[in-house]
Amino acid sequence: MSKTFPDGFLWGGALAANQVEGAWLEGGKGISTSDMQPNGIFGGVVERTPGDRSIKDVAIDFYHRYPEDIALFSEMGFTCLRVSIAWTRIFPQGDELEPNEAGLAWYDALFDELARHNIQPMVTLSHYEMPWGLVENYGGWGNRKLITFFERYARTVFTRYRDKVKLWLTFNEINMSLHAPLTGVGLQEDCTTEDIYQAIHHQLVASGMAVKACHEIIPDAKIGNMLLGGLMYPLSCKPADVFATLQENRTWLFFGDVQCRGEYPGYMRRYFRDNGIVLQTEPADDEALSHTVDFISFSYYMTGCVTADPELVEKLRGNILDMVPNPHLESSEWGWQIDPLGLRTLLNVLWDRYQKPLFIVENGLGAQDKPDADGHIHDDYRISYINDHLVQAREAIDDGVELMGYTAWGPIDLISASKAEVNKRYGFIYVDLQQDGSGTLERRRKESFYWYQGVIASHGASLKP
Predict the structure, then answer these.
(1) Is 311 a catalytic residue?
(2) What is the pTM of this model?
(3) Average pLDDT over the chain, rounded to an integer
(4) Cα torsion through 253, 83, 151, 182, rounded to 10
(5) Rounded Cα–Cα distance for residues 268 and 272 (Å)
């Protein structure tokens, strides 16, 4: 018998401002860290000069085309769209006392358009970008002053959109700062591990302050954190491999522990002691951290393995993570291992650990979709991938996990974060854009568009077990 998802389950997709909006200097927007990384997270910083270009400067031009795109999302049946606010549209340099009205007005229009289609926005406050001015003038999140600047930004948008947005997230994939510190916390390449954790501490304090502000300003809202779900398995049942895996999983679960429990766990305090890391804290930090999130959101793309044997470590580059490949799994054309059952495992791990509602806010398959001679895009591989992951999500619900919703990553083709690629397509909607910037930006429905439409309409009953 086909299983359906619970009443009230939210269906949709997820986007990031810097990967879809374009219009990088329109409406008073300032320059962000993403703008200074035109070749992606792993492309390094490039000083921008007048006349140069990045594919992200226009991206898929969501800034001007959002009504058309939202209409397509509505046609699929979306009840939720995860978006992010570009901090630099609200505070161009990051440290202004007054916000940029043009930026605020644009998001008003976006949220109003979503409301017209009965699509609930879920808004990420900081998604892989921050004002470049805060990096240049303050040294990024290594400076405590950024806590104040972020709280001002958060309170500004909470107040402005209190009647329009009831689901919020603080920092996208907050644990990613360990792997890409410029993108996560605005630190340069020569920073130390202590520098990174000091910046992370400031960001965790700021996250707690944002939670507190959200609860004060929008009492009927829910605010969550967002983790990169980097679940690891032991490569063998050797005790050393099992313990090394526990330690590896703790490197990202630490962020959830702080944001869900309100304090640093003992294993992290030991890590700091053993590695000579001394964080500079203030008495008020503990109170800020005590403001815990209402729910946990996360991305899930793949799993990996861990071994304590250095001779067995053959690393595979993945979603900002280095990991040992699993010999029992197949991989995508980008080398990302495909593990639907791992999603069920992760959902159970997070539910058992925190007993807070969960939300899958990123999951999808990047592939080089190509239209056929008739212009159709047959992406059965994407259908299979998402089908199998949703089946496991439904099984986790039967396990007792409280799951709020599912927003597929990149419901429309966008610019990848890691290397600013457009050829790595995730969408149910094809965008006529090529890596050299050519193309009409025309939108076209893929085969998966109609499939996902059917899944939502049947509330999951159409999924193939």
Answers:
(1) no
(2) 0.96
(3) 95
(4) 60
(5) 6
